[in-house]
Write a structure and sequence with these properties.
With 98 residues, this protein is an all-alpha fold. The chain is built from 7 helices and no strands. Helix 6 packs antiparallel against helix 7.
């Protein structure tokens, strides 16, 4: 999994957000049995989709997040930002993103 993490870091550093989201999705599919370790994968995947204006993909990613991880403060905050973007509440988006 370390090489997969390095791949995600590399594509993020290059500003290739869709590629980062796809790399995270691949990690998600390969490590389904160990969901506790996937919090960072879901976070990066949703944020990358939002940056690339792929809101549907970000929403579907959130729907795949296991219930145990949905309680994470970080993932809940990302979801709130996503909800603001989805509702076109840009004032709320800026408030929640800061």
């Amino acid at each position: 999994r370390e090489t997969a993490m390095e791949e995600v870091r590399s594509v993020l550093a290059d500003g290739k957000y869709l590629q980062a989201a796809k790399a995270c999705e691949k990690i998600e599919l390969e490590t389904r049995e160990d969901t506790c370790q996937l919090e960072w994968v879901y976070a990066i995947q949703m944020i990358s989709h939002m940056i690339a204006n792929q809101l549907n993909d970000a929403r579907f990613c959130w729907k795949r997040v296991p219930e145990t991880l949905r309680q994470s403060g970080e993932l809940r905050a990302i979801c709130k930002v996503l909800e603001s973007l989805w509702d076109k509440d840009y004032v709320g988006f800026h408030a929640k993103a800061s």
